[in-house]
Design goal:
Glycosyl transferase family 25 domain-containing protein; 293 residues; 11 helices; alpha/beta; Spore Coat Polysaccharide Biosynthesis Protein SpsA, Chain A; 38% helix
């Protein structure tokens, strides 16, 4: 039986993706987790006014409507947190895979350090290990005793994160100025003022990851590829964008080197069962296989 938890669970799902909703619902039900569905904004059919939270271009390039719609969907989730008075919420995209320890993670929010309003629980690119610069251990999670550390380098992906009501309010206060995809907005300080304000933490090792074979295909990948291909056909535009991205990437290098040299941060490796060569748990494979067959 699914039950309510101190950390609310919000699931972002397109109305057209009932396959993902049924698979996610079965997975969450199996874990005893109740969720509230957030109807995602569909960038292929939505009026431009509904995408006004973000701009059409920014420091890492053009943002197609599907990318902006993804951001608008997360904005709806943040607004729900504020409107309902939730202290914290775990926000999930509908192609996420959850480790069983997530159940204990949301059963109590006392493990979240004071002053931390955004905690990334997801590993991006789950089939390979990633290295990030992270601060000292601030806390440990209830189950599995995972570490909670400050993020001092980017690690994108927005399939799973916990945000406080205060964090949601801060994010909403900047609506209209977003000029990068939502995962960069939250977890890439080199291009995001919001990330700098929220100073996110990350759970190590992560508890959530995304996989195309699990998520039944990306809804925004094709438009992004089309935009990227358009830039590639314009050599000068491609060069300008590459130089701008390179400048962004090194903008915090002096701070990162200082933190590393003084022992205030260290390089941490992020892995998932998939990046360690393990298969998904049997229950999870059955859940997703039933919808992808």
């Amino acid at each position: 039986m699914s039950v309510l938890h101190p950390v609310g669970v919000l699931l972002i799902n397109l109305d057209t993706r009932g396959d993902r909703l049924s698979a996610m619902t079965r997975m969450l039900d199996a874990m005893g987790i109740a969720c509230h569905r957030i109807s995602a904004v569909d960038g292929r059919s939505v009026p431009q006014a509904d995408l006004a939270c973000s701009r059409k271009t920014g420091p890492i390039g053009a943002m197609p409507d599907t990318t902006r719609a993804c951001t608008a969907s997360h904005v709806k989730a943040w607004q729900h947190i504020v409107d309902t008075g939730l202290r914290h919420a775990l926000i999930l995209e509908d192609d996420a895979v959850l480790h069983p320890d997530v159940t204990a993670l949301i059963a109590d929010d006392g493990w979240i350090p004071a002053g931390v309003d955004l905690v990334k629980v997801e590993k991006f690119a789950p089939k390979r290990a990633s290295k990030i610069l992270a601060g000292k251990v601030l806390a440990r999670t209830p189950a599995g005793q995972r570490e909670v550390r400050r993020m001092y380098s980017r690690h994108t992906g927005s399939a799973g994160y916990i945000i406080s009501r205060k964090g949601a309010e801060i994010a909403l206060s900047l609506s209209g100025s977003y000029d990068v995809p939502v995962d960069h907005l939250l977890f890439n300080e080199t291009v995001s003022r919001l990330c700098g304000l929220l100073r996110p933490a990350i759970v190590v090792p992560p508890l959530v990851w995304q996989d195309n074979s699990v998520g039944l295909g990306s809804d925004i990948k094709a438009p992004r590829l089309a935009e990227n291909n358009a830039v590639r056909r314009k050599p000068f535009a491609r060069l300008a964008l590459s130089l701008r991205r390179a400048a962004n990437e090194v903008s915090l290098l002096h701070i990162q080197l200082f933190l590393l040299a003084t022992g205030r941060a260290q390089v941490v490796t992020l892995t998932t069962p998939q990046s360690r060569g393990r298969a998904l748990p049997g229950l999870w494979r059955k859940i997703w296989a039933s919808d992808s067959a």
